[in-house]
UniProtKB/TrEMBL annotation:
Gene3D superfamilies: Queuine tRNA-ribosyltransferase-like. This is Queuine tRNA-ribosyltransferase catalytic subunit 1. The active site is at D99 (proton acceptor), D273 (nucleophile). It is found in: Cytoplasm.
Length: 410
């Protein structure tokens, strides 16, 4: 009797918040076990700008994201195939996820024509044409060899309304089947479908219902974080997590601001990615719990503190704000130093949320985080409403003081 094959992705929920939809889990992939909730740094073309794979390992990063469209153009599938896949090509021993190229329908819209067959792109490098069909997207991803691969979806700008949104949603479901049919490495790579439907709750529900009929190991929520109101953003996420299965990972694409991460973990999301922490490093900005430090500002010229005295990254252990102020956006090494810190900040935030969920202290964590994050500014109404929807009541400092006074009197 042959041994039962281990699937390339298994997911186990190990703790759930007793109040909200937040949960902590372990996603076991071929190249690493990934604890969720997790933030995936973005290495679009197989490299994160300003940081080496060894440094990412030192930060305990378990999974990265790369992009199918860009890797298909450069270096191309012939070179990737000869290298033995992206893991070997970029010397990254841990897990990878590849985006299918669907997002480029929005980001490179002026270079793309979309129809039922796929997306016809003109290369931004040499103006040559490239037809990205669901089948070709999967072919590229099979060569890349990522642990998790994404279907090609029909993506429209978030604020689009009218029949184009419904057309894109139904086409996305049809393209899932074409992707599944073309997928030749299902025993090694897990294909995630993507929930589309714009900001229309009914279209999102229809899309989830259609995707639930397919046999998959996880789901992504796409088409958000593209200019819609925060109120529409959280309500759409909430609808999707209400309907997606609890025993499979849920990936929210393109979200990386700290407050958004906390809110969406409370709403039941497990996986995130965004270029924000690496991109903002290149502009001389460091992430801290209160937001960002723009180290180009003169006030940091004599500041001998670390970026974050609670951070254990090599940048914070070694360099001062003053030193960084004098080299950001001037010396290339500054990008590397800030990128190390910013990735460290994102990963530490996820660890803190996992720990709070495991201790069943997540609502307390959310309250403390929001108080520190917004400081003297009021917590935005959309965040309060989002958290109230999952039974987490956020209070301002003055409200907390009044509540403490009442507790003492009682």
């Amino acid at each position: 009797m042959s041994a039962q094959k281990i699937p390339p992705l298994t997911y186990k929920v190990i703790a759930e918040c007793s109040v909200s939809k937040a949960r902590a889990g372990i996603m076991s992939l071929r190249h690493s076990d990934v604890e969720t909730p997790v933030f995936m740094p973005v290495g679009t073309t197989g490299t994160l700008k300003g940081i080496l794979p060894d440094q990412l390992i030192d930060l305990d990063c378990k999974i990265l994201l790369s992009n199918t469209y860009h890797l298909g153009l450069r270096p191309g599938i012939d070179i990737l195939e000869k290298a033995g896949g992206l893991h070997k090509f970029m010397a990254w021993p841990r897990a990878l996820l590849t985006d299918s190229g669907g997002f480029q329908m929005v980001s490179l819209l002026k270079l793309a024509e979309i129809d039922e067959n796929g997306v016809n792109f003109r290369s931004p490098f040499d103006n040559s044409e490239c037809m990205l069909t669901p089948e070709h997207s999967i072919q590229i991803q099979n060569v890349i060899g990522a642990d998790i691969i994404m279907q090609l979806d029909d993506v429209v700008k978030t604020t689009t309304t009218g029949p184009r949104v419904e057309e894109a949603m139904h086409r996305t479901i049809r393209w899932v089947d074409r992707c599944s049919e073309a997928h030749s490495r299902d025993e090694e790579q897990s294909l995630f479908p993507i929930v589309q439907g714009g900001l229309d709750p009914e279209l999102r529900k229809q899309c989830v219902a259609g995707l639930l009929e397919r046999k998959v190991r996880g789901y992504a929520v796409g088409g958000l974080s593209g200019g819609e109101s925060k109120d529409d953003f959280w309500r759409t996420v909430n609808i999707c997590t209400d309907l997606l299965p609890k025993d499979k990972p849920r990936y929210l694409m393109g979200v990386g601001f700290a407050a958004d991460l906390v809110v969406c973990v409370a709403l039941g999301i497990d996986m995130f990615d965004c270029v924000f922490p690496t991109r903002t490093a290149r502009f001389g900005c460091a992430l801290v719990i209160s937001g960002q430090l723009n180290l180009k500002q003169k006030k940091y010229s004599l500041d001998m503190r670390a970026i974050d005295e609670e951070c254990e990254c090599s940048t914070c252990k070694t360099y001062t704000r003053s030193y960084l102020h004098h080299i950001v956006t001037v010396e290339p090494v500054a990008c590397s130093l800030l990128t190390v810190h910013n990735i460290s900040f994102q990963l530490r935030l996820m660890r803190q949320m996992r720990s709070a969920i495991e201790k069943n202290e997540f609502p307390k964590f959310v309250q403390e985080f929001m108080t520190k994050h917004f400081g003297n500014d009021p917590i935005p109404k959309w965040i309060k409403e989002a958290m109230a929807a999952v039974n987490i009541q956020l209070l301002e400092d003055k409200d907390l003081m009044n509540e403490n006074d009442l507790t003492l009197r009682n």
